[in-house]
């Protein structure tokens, strides 16, 4: 008996190439290009009005504390973007076509991680560069700050994008998928994005620490804020090892679970189910 062909670098490379093509197309499409700039612009407006408001007696402006957290929130919102893309591709038959090729589902997932992750990095740059000029009190002038920012971004995307893939496999229509934004917004609301989590009730603080969103915000703040600002955090420190551990744990779980969920979901796809979904969409829009 011959051993089955195992996926390897060819599948990884094909997925990356597909993802890069989709990423390039998102910057040549008018609607996608608008979405890349609209959200960072809205956040910059919020930061502008927060730049002179101080948090308690700390002396730190809320805008300074909020910018790194908003960057973390943008990474976490990749869960929503990933789930929306997967649900739409499942509805129009793209995922069914991927299943028809050897290791197509795995290559498809790699491509989506590359395209969605690349879009997130572009959005972060669009927000961070003018934010550094607009907001005072940030500290990102050393190699340590940039290296911290890099590993937080990588671990953060690995921790959140697979969750989005799983959620995209659970919801069968784009209308139902809209419900996913409610729990994600709930996580953001308790994660200390716009206001330090230490100001929230203790039970909310514990709940926030179970989510990757809080640790993303904390990691971003450790990279962009001066060391003295750690006194505003829980335990009075950046808890770098805990941040890496929690985000790493979420990443491992997501990378193990997501391919299995997608393969199981893809096995249930057929031409008749795709045609039925299209008929339902046409009946709603007709």
Q: How is this fold's topology laid out?
A:
Elements (H helix, E strand, L loop, with lengths): L8 H18 L3 H21 L11 H15 L1 H15 L1 H6 L4 H31 L8 H28 L3 H4 L3 H9 L12 H7 L3 H13 L15 H28 L3 H15 L1
Helix pairs in contact: 1-6, 2-3, 2-6, 3-6, 3-11, 4-6, 4-7, 6-7, 7-11, 7-12, 11-12
Q: Stretches where pLDDT falls below 50 for ≥5 residues?
A: 1-5
The proportion of residues forming helix, as a percent range, comes to over 70%
Shape: globular
Overall structural domain count: 1
Strand tally is 0
Kindly report the average pLDDT value: 81
Protein described:
This protein is mainly α and 286 residues long. The protein has one domain. The protein is 73% helix and 0% strand. It is built from 13 helices and no strands.
Keywords:
286 residues, mainly alpha, disordered N terminus, 13 helices, globular
Compact overview of the structure:
Mean pLDDT is 81; it is low at 1-5.
């Amino acid at each position: 008996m011959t051993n089955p062909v195992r996926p390897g670098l060819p599948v990884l490379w094909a997925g990356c190439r597909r993802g890069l093509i989709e990423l390039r197309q998102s910057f040549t499409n008018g609607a996608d290009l608008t979405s890349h700039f609209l959200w960072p612009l809205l956040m910059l407006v919020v930061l502008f009005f927060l730049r002179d408001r101080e948090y308690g007696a700390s002396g730190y402006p809320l805008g300074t504390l909020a910018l790194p957290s908003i960057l973390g929130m943008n990474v976490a919102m990749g869960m929503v973007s990933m789930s929306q893309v997967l649900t739409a591709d499942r509805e129009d038959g793209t995922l069914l076509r991927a299943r028809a090729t050897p290791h197509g589902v795995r290559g498809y997932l790699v491509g989506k991680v590359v395209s969605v992750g690349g879009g997130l990095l572009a959005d972060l740059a669009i927000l961070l560069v003018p934010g550094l000029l607009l907001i005072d009190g940030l500290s990102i002038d050393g190699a340590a700050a940039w290296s911290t920012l890099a590993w937080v971004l990588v671990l953060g995307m690995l921790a959140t994008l697979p969750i989005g893939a799983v959620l995209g496999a659970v919801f069968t229509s784009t209308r139902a998928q809209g419900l996913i934004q409610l729990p994600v917004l709930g996580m953001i609301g308790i994660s200390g994005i716009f206001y330090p989590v230490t100001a929230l009730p203790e039970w909310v603080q514990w709940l926030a620490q179970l989510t990757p969103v809080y640790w993303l915000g904390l990691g971003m703040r450790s990279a962009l804020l001066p060391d003295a600002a750690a006194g505003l955090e829980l335990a009075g420190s950046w808890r770098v090892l805990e941040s890496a551990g929690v985000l790493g744990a979420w990443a491992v779980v997501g990378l193990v679970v997501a391919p299995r969920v997608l393969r199981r979901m893809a096995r249930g796809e057929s031409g008749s189910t795709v045609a039925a979904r299209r008929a339902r969409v046409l009946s709603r829009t007709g």
